[in-house]
Amino acid sequence: MSAAGESGRTQQMRAQAQDLEQAAERATDPQERQRLKDKARQLKEQSEHAGGTGKPGIDPTVSSR
Questions:
Q1: What sign does the CA torsion over 7, 12, 16, 21 have?
Q2: 65 residues of the chain, pLDDT tens digit each
Q3: pLDDT on residue 6
Q4: Backbone angles phi, psi at 60, to 5 degrees
Q5: Which residues contact 65 (CB under 8 A, 6 or more apart)?
Q6: Residue 63: how many CA atoms within 13 Å on its side-chain side?
Q7: Which site among 4, 17, 51, 64 is 20 to 30 Å from 32 CA-CA?
């Protein structure tokens, strides 16, 4: 997949995660709220792995000497 396609996909996933978070804030049922929050978290994690532009952190594949 091209970098542009990957970037578009990750942006779409992040936007969907944000929509789910907002829906969770509006949800009145605690179980539905938790389900929406979990789905939003899962999408964020997937977008970070797919795009590699998530939160900065330590790359476990790089060893330091």
A1: positive
A2: 555 566 788 899 999 999 999 999 999 999 999 999 999 999 999 988 887 654 555 555 555 55
A3: 66
A4: -70, -10
A5: none
A6: 1
A7: 51
Contacts of 36 (CB under 8 A, 6+ apart): 20, 21, 23, 24, 27
| Residue type present at position 51 | G
C-alpha to C-alpha distance for 23 and 61, rounded to whole angstroms: 36
- The three-class DSSP label of residue 57 is coil
Query: Mapping DSSP to helix (H, G, I), strand (E, B) and coil, where does residue 53 land?
Result: coil
pLDDT given for residue 54 in this prediction: 47
Is residue 37 within 8 A of residue 21, CB to CB? The reply is yes
Give me the amino acid identity at 13: M
